[in-house]
Amino acid sequence: MSTGAAALSPAREQLARRWAGLAPRERRAVTLVALVVGLFIVWVALVQPAWRTVRDAPAALDRLDAQQQELQRLAAEVRELRGAAPVSAPQAGEALKAATSRLGDTGKLVLRGDSAVLTLNGAGAEGLQAWLNEARSAARARPVEMQIQRAAQGYSGTLTVTLPGAP
To answer: Looking at the predicted structure, is the pLDDT value of residue 9 above 90?
Structure first.
């Protein structure tokens, strides 16, 4: 017999003597408490995590499906842009000017050779998003630097893009 089993033997004997000394009513109460504690441990350790996973799975799957659809849409847009005819730098500049004119007084564009700088002063989120979409799709411009702050009246700062054909 090992020393660990030998150390448990006196404790087991003492527990058996205590159990024998209990009245039948006390034995039932101790058994019931042990059963309740055991069921609680099984619930907390095994059942509750699985239950939570089953309950939350449909919402998680819906989120993942939505993300997958968005990624597929973006991938299709990338394929479309790669297959589109190249845009010359003057055409890109004109497309950026047209997009900037839709920003109104909140946006000012300065063309600098192979890049363009958009200065924003209180531009709305929708207008900025539309400008970025048009810069990417119509002008094939790529953002390279952005220093924009969000304030109560809108977005302010600068956004630098490179025009097609730039290194």
So the answer is: no
Q: Is the separation of the CB atoms in 113 and 131 below 8 Å?
A: no
DSSP for 76-140, written as a single string: HHHHHHHHSPP--HHHHHHHHHHHHHTTGGGEEEEEETTEEEEEEEEE-HHHHHHHHHHHHHTS-
Domain definitions of the chain by residue range: 3-81, 89-162
Contacts of 42-46 spanning 24+ positions with Cβ under 8 A? none
* Structure confidence by residue, pLDDT tens digits, 18-54: 988 989 999 999 999 999 999 999 999 999 999 999 9
Distance CA 138, CA 148 (A): 23
Residue corresponding to tokens 């055991």 = 38
Q: Are 159 and 117 spatial neighbours (Cβ–Cβ below 8 Å)?
A: yes
